[in-house]
Specification:
Blueprint (H helix, E strand, L loop, with lengths): L8 H22 L6 H26 L5 H26 L17 H24 L6 H8 L1 H21 L19 H9 L15 H13 L6 H27 L2 H13 L1 H6 L6 H16 L5 H14 L4 H11 L3 H25 L9 H5 L13 H18 L7 E3 L9 E3 L1 E2 L6 E2 L4 H27 L5 H19 L9 H14 L7 H29 L5
Antiparallel strand pairs: 1-2, 3-4
Helix pairs in contact: 1-2, 1-4, 2-4, 2-5, 3-6, 3-10, 3-21, 6-9, 6-10, 8-9, 9-10, 9-12, 10-20, 10-21, 12-13, 12-14, 12-20, 13-14, 13-15, 14-19, 17-19, 18-20, 19-20
Length: 562
């Protein structure tokens, strides 16, 4: 007979206290959609019960096994991530024109209700835990899996706080649909995508053919999330975008953990989450953070050994439906992992055929969609092209240099924000990585601490490439994934030399590949404590630098708000 575990008072107290704090802020947010006390009370009972129960059983299995010598660095990494989240919230509160903290605080009349139910929850959750102990809930396999993935889930939660806080701050520019802020923030189109995500059916704008069935993916998901917000699709869209940014972090941790240890995986996943690319695209509505999540998911499925067409076709179809060009990256990964021409051809044919069918369904439901199989619609994308053969060589080299620096440096270590106004006819600041001939080429840059940090990151990248080439020279075995990552980075460089706007806009499409490539090159040092400690220091430095970048952006836009 299996022994029943005893009730753990320390685990319960920590779970109850942490759950109460989280419930407070979640209820503070929900009060914007549920104004009556009864609804808030129902939500509090559900949330408090869930947080305490999950927290208790997770801690009940973790506390007895915790050893600082073994788990100290991963704990410090998580504290650093939550510290970064707190620093971002603190930054937002400094700019009251952008961010109102009361959005997440309980109203004064509801405080007695919250406090009373929090105290009462100690009784009902305690009794419920005793009952669950007697029925052996401790040995639940799903609970065991949750404990294993807890560091990744907590890390993702920390970055959700970061992205959602920033999204709420910048949402002030999206609340009036008559004002258009497309192209102001690194050529992102948050106004247009808020329309596509959340606008009433009869107000929808066009969906470009390079997003074959994005309406079918995004609008139902936003609608589903809005059910928990009393039908509010505006904040549901912001939550979805921030949530997918957090999903990128969790998927990265899960994938990297398959190659290395949990500490190294957490540091690299946190670097991805704190990168300039993910801070920008996890904040402003666009498709590229979704592409990054879909690509990492595709890689994850391949690394798990799920290479059958029944798995790869749906995963590739997801990538295809979000942004058509990124489908080629999945083909690269498939070829390098399993170089079978006939199977790859079937994969490509199946994804394109199913993609065309879903695009047809999208056009039938949303008439403003432009299907990718319509040649005239696809040819309209030429307005975003850059002809490297007819353009003067100086402009071509300038574009290449900007793209190279964005891939190697800016996407991870944020530069000083380059905000242009009169130079390019913007009444509101237009943030750019690169703007040619106005009247000269203008490119963003580094200074001080950021300059030294960018140089160090560049040295790491060059060293990682040298390690890869040395391994390739000695033996080609075991380098398929790293080779595929490098090819995908090079593919993005070639693609955006001839197509696209500001390179930072597309940065999530390659940032994950760059970070994964570097992580794999230093895999041999991943178990060294000194290397993990050095990685923690580097991660903290990137967070500080990128926090300064965020503060500079706030400082620039704040005076333009009435």
């Amino acid at each position: 007979m299996k022994k029943t575990l005893k009730f753990s008072k320390p685990s319960f107290f920590v779970a109850w206290l942490a759950g109460s704090l989280v419930t407070y802020f979640v209820l503070g947010f929900l009060k914007n959609f549920y104004t009556d006390l009864f609804s808030l009370a129902v939500w509090e009972i559900i949330l408090q019960t869930g947080y305490v129960l999950i927290g208790y059983f997770l801690l009940r299995g973790i506390f007895p096994r915790f050893r600082f010598a073994e788990h100290g660095l991963i704990t410090l990494g998580l504290l650093l991530a939550f510290g970064f989240g707190g620093a971002v919230i603190g930054l937002c509160t400094q700019f009251s024109r952008l961010f109102d903290l009361s959005l997440f605080l309980m109203p004064t009349p509801a405080l007695p209700l919250w406090f009373g139910l929090v105290l009462a929850s100690a009784l009902w959750t305690g009794l419920l835990i005793e009952w669950m102990h007697k029925r052996g809930f401790d040995s639940n396999p799903y609970l065991d899996s949750l404990r294993v993935h807890l560091p990744g889930l907590l890390l993702a939660a920390a970055f959700f706080v970061v992205y959602f806080s920033l999204a709420v701050a910048y949402s002030i520019f999206l609340r009036d649909p008559s004002k258009n802020f497309d192209d102001n923030f690194y050529d992102t189109d948050p106004t247009s995508w808020m329309n596509r995500f959340a606008a009433p059916f009869d107000s929808l704008i066009e969906m470009r053919p390079v997003h074959p069935f994005a309406y079918l993916l995004f609008r139902p998901t936003v609608w589903f999330l809005s059910l928990f917000l009393h039908g509010d699709r505006f904040y549901a869209a912001l939550m979805l975008n921030a949530g997918v940014g957090a999903l990128c972090v969790f998927l990265a941790w899960t994938l990297l953990k398959r190659w290395t240890n949990p500490v190294y995986a957490l540091l690299c996943a946190a670097l991805l989450g704190a990168s300039a690319a993910h801070l920008i695209l996890g904040t402003f509505l666009e498709t590229y953070i979704y592409s990054a999540a879909a690509l990492i998911l595709f890689l994850f499925l391949l690394q798990r050994g799920n290479r059958s067409l029944a798995v790869t076709i749906p995963a590739g179809l997801l990538v295809f439906g979000i942004t058509i060009s990124n489908f080629l990256q999945t083909c690269v990964y498939l070829v390098f992992h399993e170089p079978k021409i006939f199977k790859t051809a079937k994969y490509i044919a199946a994804v394109i055929a199913l993609g065309a069918a879903l695009a047809y369904v999208q056009v039938s439901i949303f008439p403003t969609s432009q299907p990718f199989y319509n040649i005239s619609d696809m040819l309209s994308e030429r307005r975003y092209s850059f002809d490297i053969f007819t353009t003067p060589i100086r402009q071509t080299l300038g574009r290449g240099y900007s793209l190279y620096r964005t891939i190697m440096l800016y996407s991870t270590v944020a530069p000083r924000p380059l905000a242009l106004t009169d130079e390019i006819g913007c009444q509101f600041p237009c943030f750019k990585t690169y703007k040619p001939h106005y009247p000269r080429n203008i490119i963003t840059s580094y200074s001080g601490f950021g300059s030294w940090l960018a140089r160090f990151w560049f040295i790491l990248e060059v060293t990682a490439l040298a390690v890869f080439l040395w391994k390739l020279f000695k033996s080609r075995s075991g380098l398929a994934l790293q080779s595929a990552l490098l090819v995908c980075v090079f593919f993005n460089f070639l693609l955006h030399m001839g197509y696209g706007d500001d390179p930072m806009l597309y940065s999530p499409d390659w940032t994950y590949a760059v970070i994964f490539f570097v992580a794999l090159s230093f895999q041999g040092l991943a178990d060294k404590k000194w290397f993990q400690a050095a990685g923690l220091v580097f991660l903290a430095a990137v967070m500080v630098n990128n926090w300064i970048f965020l503060r500079s952006m706030f400082t620039i836009v704040s005076p333009y708000l009435q």
